[in-house]
Design brief:
Helix content: 55-70%
Oligomer: single chain
Shape: elongated
Number of strands: 0
Largest sheet: none
Distance between the termini: 62 Å
Number of helices: 5
Order of helices and strands: HHHHH
Strand content: under 5%
Bound molecules: heme C
CATH class: Mainly Alpha
Radius of gyration: 22 Å
Length: about 110
């Protein structure tokens, strides 16, 4: 009698454990995808490596730290920094999104 219940119980707890684990895994992946997705739009002009197309007026951004990049993005948003493209673009993001983008793209020391 006891033995009969042990196996299903073990299987059930293993399933619960697995679903909790994979649920967590999915949540982290979705979070990563969101962050990468936000930062990926910048690659159209600045390149996936942040090198930009300097001759085409797309500056190098892979030399900036996250703090420096966030400061520039916020300055574009507030109008403190002028530009052809970045002021409009920066206004489209919340400060939280700009922080995520700067953290994704900023140079890691
Ligand atoms: C449509 C092209 C385009 C896209 C997309 C774009 N940028 Fe820019 N970026 C520019 C241009 C052009 C400049 C020069 C300033 C200006 O004229 O707006 C610039 C300047 C910058 C600068 C200042 C560099 C410096 O050293 O002064 C930063 C930082 C920057 N971009 C970050 C980003 C980030 C982060 C994204 C993604 C959210 C992004 N850019 C998307 C074209 C683009």
């Amino acid at each position: 009698m006891q033995v009969k219940y042990v196996k299903p119980l073990l299987a059930a707890s293993a399933l619960i454990g697995l679903s909790q684990w994979s649920g967590l895994g999915l949540a982290q992946t979705a979070d990563q995808l969101y962050k990468r997705g936000l930062a990926a739009t910048c690659a159209n002009c600045h390149g996936t490596d942040g090198k930009g197309v300097v001759d085409g007026g797309m500056p190098l951004i892979n030399t900036l730290t996250s703090e420096q990049m966030l400061a520039k993005l916020k300055a574009y948003k507030s109008g403190a920094l002028e530009g052809t493209i970045m002021p409009q673009l920066a206004k489209g993001y919340t400060d939280e999104q700009l922080t995520i983008i700067a953290n994704q793209l900023g140079k890691k020391q």
